Amino acid sequence: MTTKVADPVIEVHDLTVSYQRKPALWGVDFSLPSGVLAGIIGPNGAGKSTLIKAMMGLVSGDSGYVRLFNRPIDEVRGKVAYVPQRGTVDWDFPASVLDVVLMGRFKKRRLFSRLSKADEALALRCLEQVGMEGFKYRQISQLSGGQQQRVFLARALAQQAEIYLMDEPFAGIDATTEQTIFELLGKLRDEGKTILVVHHDLQSAYQYFDWIILLNTQLVASGPRSDIFVPDYLRKTYGGKLNMLTSVGEMLAEMEAPTREK
Ligand code: ADP
Ligand code: MG
Prior knowledge:
Elements: E1 10-19, E2 22-32, E3 37-41, H1 48-55, E4 63-68, E5 80-83, H2 97-106, H3 117-129, H4 145-158, E6 163-167, H5 175-190, E7 194-198, H6 202-208, E8 211-216, E9 218-224, H7 225-228, H8 231-238, H9 246-261
Parallel strand pairs: 3-7, 3-8, 5-6, 6-7
Antiparallel strand pairs: 1-2, 1-4, 8-9
The structure holds adenosine-5'-diphosphate (ADP) and magnesium ion.
Magnesium ion binds next to helix 1.
């Protein structure tokens, strides 16, 4: 099930991506309107990171295409912020927290042009928004995983992009901070930005996202969350692994209860 979008900001068409001939994504097709906070949900190895990377042009497809604002990514990079999955980034480079956030401003400006006081003030505001302003002079390598993650979120915010692509930005982040950051993402959404977040927790996904994309190599479903959070689609996405996730099992039981009473 894919909800058709009249004027999409993100369009993924018939996308197949393989590693050593093994498909990680297969014929994936969906589009997103502007001003949604969307979650990509699926089990480990479902191709979630590959999808985000393909959208950023970091891996190329065997077939299909991705268009953002009806353009190829290379023409609109300045409008797109990307938070890679942790563990795929080398955190050992010598840079302060503030430097890392300021890198988000360089993408906005011409290469080698000087950053202004205003850029620095903005970077500090972004650090405040993720609760990391007290660490601005700390070396990034000295932070905990969750703290590094928050700094990378701040860098994405500093880019003042139109589209935000985030790959498991909440890994290693405590529940309170997660909630604060989701509120922040909600505000960006209300300003008309389009935000696409890879997220692994189904329960909080239902709480936070207004649009859900269910992925398991193939696209299972994409649409407004109430259309997508139905037992059939969740089962198709998680298959046998679903029983292991007790909370999700309970959620499904609750969803199905009204049906059983009929
Ligand atoms: P997810 O983010 O949903 O866990 P990924 O997109 O990382 O899934 O991976 C999808 C599939 O592609 C997995 O089977 C993974 O092992 C494989 N894969 C991912 N990256 C590579 C790579 N660089 N080389 C070979 N196989 C890869
Ligand atoms: Mg991944």
